[in-house]
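Our consortium's second objective concerns turning raw sequence data into structural hypotheses that experimental partners can test. To show how far this objective has progressed, the report includes one record in full. It was chosen at random from the queue rather than selected for favorable results. The single chain below, 188 residues long, was entered without modification.
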Amino acid sequence: MAKVERYQMQRMINSNDKNITLYLQAFMIVLVISGLCYFSLPFLSKKILSFINAFGVRGELYSFAIKMSQGASYNAAHYPFMGYATDWLGFAHLMFALLFVGPLLDPERNEWVIRYGLIVSAAVIPVVLIAGWIREIPIIWRIVNCFFGLFGFLLLYKVSKMVQQNQEFRREIEAGDQKKINPEIRVA
């Protein structure tokens, strides 16, 4: 292996490592923010309603935002124990984010976590579409929720490809190093 080739591979590994870190941090931040939002659903639903109101949006989305805000406030006032379900949902998001600390520290060793994240992100879409239909969630709201799954999948897919590329480069560098040590060794 030529010195230039090795240098280019090492530069690509370093670049991939930086991007992997950046993408995983973005993925984890979105999960943490989402998780924390579930702990304050009545407050958040009021904020969403005022946000939709500020843009003058009307129709099915506006009607649903009103219903969501009223339902969350009513439940919080009359049935506070119902918030326990969304607390667990928030907790699950936080734990899912925590799961990605492993790949953040060592993406190649913890590649299985990235693959698991790909599966979960892909599974978001059918769950949102089916459960959203059963729970009478407006289609526009379901589409927005599907984008979270799509965003997570695309981000983790890119990370997975960079991890695989780094693994290939490291194998080539190691094979070249082995040849230098003992030129008679054939490395597959």
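The partners drew two points from this record. The chain has a mean pLDDT of 90. The chain has seven helices and no strands. Both points have been shared with the crystallography group to help prioritize constructs.
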